[in-house]
Amino acid sequence: MEKEFNDTGVCVPSRHYMVNTSDKIKSIIQLIEKGKYFTISRPRQFGKTTTLFLIMKKLFKTDEYLPVRISFEGLTTENYANEKKFLAGFCNLLKRFFRSQKLHELLDYTEKQGNMENFDQLNSFITNLCSISTRHIVLMIDEVDKSSNNQLFLDFLALLRTKFLDSMEGQDTSFHSIIMAGVHDIKTLKAKIRPDDERKYNSPWNIASDFNVDLSFSSHEIETMLNDYSHEKNINPDIRAIAQKLYYYTSGYPWLVSKLCKLIDENIITQRKNKNWLAADVEAGFRMIADKAYSATLFDSLIKNLENNNDLYELVFQIIINGRSLDFSIDDPVINLGHLYGILVNSERGRCQIHNRIFEQRIYAYMMSKVQRTKSGNVNEYGSPEFYNVSGLDIRLVLQRFQTFMKEHYSQKDAKFLEREGRLLFLSYLRPIINGRGFDFKEPNVSDERRMDIVITYENQRYVIELKIWHGPKYHQKGLKQLSAYLDTYQLKEGYLLIYDFNKNKDYKQEQIIFEDKEIFAVWV
Question: Is residue 464 classed as helix, strand or coil in its secondary structure?
Fold first, then answer.
């Protein structure tokens, strides 16, 4: 069977091109060897299920450990109706696994137990199951989020906790190690346990050890997958450069890495004879997946999480649109939620940062779409031939027209409104102009300067526009230096600066600036 890049379900080495995660698996095995109980809490499609599968395959090769891998996705609503039905569902999951792995002794024992009525009987069942096994049983439960809103699940956790503590004191026999995987950290799950919808934090899993293994892919790890692919396809691309570009756009988010590779393999290179990958292919893949018309379950979940939490939406809005630099504090419930969903990460400077450039691009396109639906003052110059000339896109004219637009429609708005909405208005103004003709990319920026960098690609030409808030001449010079340095990364000598001045007596002016070896056209709004 020919291998492929996988973007659905568990990745299997014999069927899929995969990153070599042996170092990660080794670190997790070390936790198991120490008898730790822990949770793999990571966002959606972050490789949790594949990681459990690889751990299981590794443990099966040992003489000491017996992995038992189940998923609570296999439980139905009916299984949560009462204690007996929950226990029946749990045992059915065990029997299904024992049967598939031909573990006949454990299967026979489980089938002979009949129908357990309560958790006391489950207690004895686990003790006996672990006693008759010739190897230490490692219980792995995937999709535990499916049960997080139920008191029966809390009782189940409490039982496992008690057995763990008793076994540590030599008073009981239990699973050697337990791994639970899901989006939420089991230690801090909220559970609906009262009819009046009152919620409280549970604590039956405070025995869990910290899980600090990074499941994201490094650039070097991505190279291992590309090496495998290149060997099978008999091609010789610049693997290091491509891996670095893949990491640049994805920050190692596993599903995004695999999806970009799949797009390149099955969509992009099929259009040409030379099947060697190029760094430009990664950029083409990025433009495809970042396009607001491209649908994927992960992006649906991303937007849903923002739509369902106003505080999280506002926080992300301030970071992406208004360039706010916010300290990353995991104790802040809103930041914690953003981190839980894979939207926010802690930058090297200790600031909140959107996890990757694809997420940032998708979110900012979504926020622009909202403002286009809800704001008045739409311009009628969208798509005007005046914006295009023989050399490409006339950014100078775009900025001049936007300045006029703001003066006519928003000059009476207060500073608070403009500070929140001003830059989003420009982005929504810009998008229809280049839609179908070019591509605009918001470059992530986590700094003390509240600025936003927009990179536009149009007919093989690139344009850089920096959006900044006016804080006086001193900061203006600092901003020019930042823009000059940023232009150097694209080997450009010309750039554009859109400055938001929230002073009441501001001057809607334009200025052609020569700074270092750059020509910068600046517009104040």
Answer: strand
Q: What is the mean pLDDT of residues 325-350?
A: 93
Does domain 22-201 fall into CATH 3.40.50?
A: yes
- CA-CA distance, 102 to 113, in Å (whole number)? 18
3-state helix, strand, coil in the chain (%, to 5): 50, 15, 35
Report angle CA 16, 240, 483 to the nearest 5 degrees.
120
The pTM score is 0.86
Quick check: 429 and 437 in contact, CB under 8 A?
A: no
The pLDDT tens digits of the residues spanning 87-138 come to 999 999 999 999 999 999 999 999 988 789 999 999 999 999 999 999 999 9
Cβ within 8 Å of residue 412, ≥6 positions away: none
Q: Residue 45 and residue 297: Cα distance in Å, rounded? A: 9
Q: For the segment 259-272, what is each residue's pLDDT rounded down to a tens digit?
A: 999 999 999 999 88
Instruction: Give the least confident one: 55-69, 240-254, 469-483.
Output: 469-483
CB 275 within 8 A of CB 233: yes
**C-alpha atoms less than 13 angstroms from C-alpha of 335 in its C-beta half-sphere:** 17
Which residue do the tokens 């060697």 mark? 276
Measuring CA to CA, how many Å separate 144 from each of 37, 74, 196, 210, 211? Answer: 14, 11, 24, 17, 16
Distance of CA 432 to the CA centre of its chain: 27
Residue 195 has pLDDT above 50, yes or no: no
Quick one: DSSP state of residue 351?
A: B
User: Residue 468: what pLDDT?
Assistant: 86
Q: Computed from CA positions of residues 220, 222, 228, 232, in that sequence, does the dihedral angle turn out positive or negative?
A: negative
pLDDT digits (tens, 9 = 90+) for 267-290: 999 988 889 999 999 999 998 998
Residue 192 has pLDDT above 60, yes or no: no
- C-alpha of 13 from chain center: 23
How do beta strands 438-443 and 392-393 pair? unpaired
Q: Dihedral of CA 106/109/115/116: which sign? A: negative
Residues with Cβ < 8 Å from 355, sequence gap 6 or more?
Answer: 251, 253, 342, 343, 344, 345
**Any residues with CB less than 8 A from the CB of 481 and at least 6 apart, and which?**
515, 516
CB 151, CB 80: distance < 8 Å: no
Residues 110 and 150: beta-carbon distance below 8 Å: no
Residue type, 197: D
Please state, in angstroms and rounded to a whole number, the distance separating the CA atoms of residues 373 and 421: 14
CB 283 within 8 A of CB 264: no
- Residue with more model confidence, 148 or 302: 302
